[in-house]
Amino acid sequence: MALSRLVPWVLLLLPIVLCDLLRPPRVTAKNVHKSHITHHSLNTEEEERQHQAEHGWHPTEDTCAKALNVSKVALMFLTRGYVQHHDTWELWFKDVQGSLPLSAMQAEGCTADAISAAGHSCGMSGGPKVLHQQHLFSVLTHVGAAEGFKGFPKESMFHGTVVPTTIKTQWGTHSLTKAILLLMETALEEPLNQRFVLLSESDIPLYPPAVVWLQLTSEHKSRIHSCGDHFYLSKAGRWVGDLASSKLQAQHWRMSDTWFMLIRRHAEVITQDIEIEHEFASNCAYSGADPTGWRRCFSDQHLFASVLSYKGMENETACDSAITNSGSGDSQRPHDFEVTEVTYQRLVGLRNPDETICKDAEAIRVAAGQVAHVSIFNATVCHSHVPGFGGELAPSCPLFARKFGPDVADAVSQLMGVTALLRSPFLSQMD
Ligand SMILES: *[C@@H]1O[C@H](CO)[C@@H](O)[C@H](O)[C@H]1NC(C)=O
Ligand SMILES: *[C@@H]1O[C@H](CO)[C@@H](O)[C@H](O)[C@H]1NC(C)=O
Ligand SMILES: *[C@@H]1O[C@H](CO)[C@@H](O)[C@H](O)[C@H]1NC(C)=O
To answer: Where is the protein localized (predicted)?
Structure first.
């Protein structure tokens, strides 16, 4: 290769390398403090068992979604303690309480029997809580580390969503990857779950739930970076020979944001892999002893994308995708939003709206005609023409945003309550 062709590459790589070298160690006193907090200290196995029975995993069968074979989007919350936007999420799910995709009813032929059966099992009949009364999403939580976390209170929407096996997580370590795998394994037990989204306690949604559901179920590629075309972005310096196995080789090394959306087949492939995960557990570790940061390896940013690359599934991932907007910071050091920044304009801005790629208003308008409340279904409504969905938002358009801390939670839910940011303008929404 001619030297002149190499020069631009060197110039491109140099700042990245320098940046990595010059970065101060990311572990601050605050991080260390938080990451060593134990989950909950229970003395005996019996206490642990009781606690689990009371505050753990209580999945309820969604007879409505099952009867209609509705593809569900699993929202998997990887948290440190309580989900900080409880009220916002509750408002969000209420927007699709009792709502069904026209496409699911049309697949049943819109028969009078199907409409009547839906009337009996969907919405309020689903159960006492908002999560039981919506049929588009599954919710799972993994609470890995929290000061005095005692489980979600009975009245919380998140009660019963803590996955049956949890581990104590520590920032920057492989334990986060393990926790994500536990979430995915549990989510895969529900055959209706077709999309798997990883969220944190400080995430908020940017669109009404009908848009998120339609968008993600219409996408057939995972929002994770497994493509080999951005080699300089994969932090090649973090690859250590020890990671090589009979399977994984340096050419499969990938880097992606921790926060992803996976299609079901990819979630299956990733959870079925044991060998590569094992290598990462031993060799992809954060080491505080390395002040340059050059060899720091964060397995949650590399393992999943690399496994998909090894499996030859790179082209089934959307390379320029993003599921969560990290504000003006990068994904590793997201911007912490302040109360004064919680405005309608600012949050809409996080959708990166434009006229060609992220047509947010158009997506909301089109979605409103494709999801309807069970009570308004009759033969005419059911047979309404459903145009294809999916051209409005590219996979690079974020659907969620972080990082919104507990101090802005009230401001966010108040804003969501008074604006139409998260509400679908359903044409014939009824209570
Ligand atoms: C239910 O939907 C899934 C995902 O679209 C599909 O793979 C499966 O075959 C469907 N099952 C039935 C019984 O129609
Ligand atoms: C991905 O690549 C493989 C092999 O090159 C090809 O057979 C397959 O059709 C591609 N899939 C997509 C979704 O482009
Ligand atoms: C179906 O519902 C729509 C909207 O509520 C209504 O305008 C229409 O007359 C109904 N059609 C029948 C056949 O009942």
So the answer is: Membrane
Instruction: Count how many Cα atoms sit within 13 Å of the Cα of residue 6 in the half-sphere of its side chain.
Output: 3
Report the distance separating Cα 98 and Cα 118, nearest Å: 10
Task: Tell the residue number behind the tokens 């499969």, with chain if given.
Answer: 252
Give the bridge partners for 223, in sequence order. 261
- 390 burial (CB, 10 Å; 0-12 / 13-18 / 19+) is middle
pTM for this structure?
Answer: 0.86
Question: Which whole number is the average pLDDT over 3-11?
Answer: 44
DSSP assignment of 64-117 equals: HHHHHT--EEEEEEEESSS-TTHHHHHHHHHTTTTEEEHHHHHHTTT-HHHHHH
Q: With the CA atoms of 347, 348, 350 and 355 taken in that order, what torsion angle do they form, in degrees rounded to the nearest 10?
A: -170
Residue 103 has which token pair? Answer: 């496409």
CB of 85 within 8 A of CB of 151?
no
The two tokens of residue 73 are 């989007």
The secondary structure of residue 295, as a DSSP letter, is T
220 close to ligand 2 (CB < 6 Angstrom):
no
* pLDDT tens track for 341-378: 999 999 999 999 999 999 999 999 999 889 999 999 99
Sign of CA dihedral 74, 80, 84, 87: positive
The ligand whose atoms approach the alpha carbon of 382 most closely is: 3
